[in-house]
Amino acid sequence: MSFRQSHLLGIEHLAPDEIVTLLDLAAEYAALNRSDRKHGDALDGLTQINMFFENSTRTQASFELAGKRLGADVMNMSMQASSIKKGETLIDTALSLNAMHPDLLVVRHPQSGAVDLLAQKVNCAVLNAGDGRHEHPTQALLDALTIRNAKGRLHRLSIAICGDIAHSRVARSNILLLGKMENRVRLVAPPTLLPAGIENFGVEVFHDMKAGLEDVDVVMMLRLQKERMDGGFIPSEREYYHRYGLDAEKLAHAKDDAIVMHPGPMNRGVEIDGTLADDINRSVIQDQVEMGVAVRMAAMDLLARNLRERRKEAAA
Ligand code: NCD
User: Fold this and answer.
1) What's the pTM?
2) 151 an active-site residue?
């Protein structure tokens, strides 16, 4: 089996063959999830703890469902904002949890790098469910599976990632994954919403939507992450929608069969036209949610296999 990781902290650490292994297994789980008996036993007997220090709807629900479908005992800990006062608090919490012998720890945290730090302190498999602006690996993987399903391949595609890239861990993980799989990635955003050091990302940058969408296969929209903005990044939401919001007119510049994606939660009428988001001929937003459960099942299954292997070796 070509998946050698102990944790899933970021796309940064994955090789292309590991990405393909994970997506192939996720495709099998997607089929299982459409059947009447949605149960596997890959995580039988294992304990999964979900620690979310930041709000989440889709990601937390799908990690929970994924664990339950594979037979894990799943516990959700909703961490209050007050418990994040210090970096020390996170480590202390982690060490206490570690004493309860979890096997899989799913963590979302507002600080970039917090999940990596935590992984060094515990002896179970850690999955990053989003850390600050850094990475959100399962989101990029579910996006990749959705693209592969819709386009029949995951290489030599032209993909535009549009909007608030500066604050987006989804964009970062997607840029890394799509680049590793040899696609052409374009970023479309106003200069204020592009991260520093963008010239090192191996992408093309556009400030105009119509030019940026010209002949692309995939249009990936991002939410304006107002909670991460501490000043005037955009003139007004109205003006932003006019220039960067995806509507039928701008989408007409992409290929005729281009798909529209969004990780959610969506601000309808800010970064995307609501009717377009619901158009089942163009939008694959619901497929993204569906693939999310399958990808998380695959990720936890693969990490659990490696965890059991390591424990067996340690005991021998
Ligand atoms: C994203 C996130 O939390 O980074 N949402 C998600 O996981 N589906 C994107 C966002 O918050 O805009």
Assistant:
1) 0.96
2) no
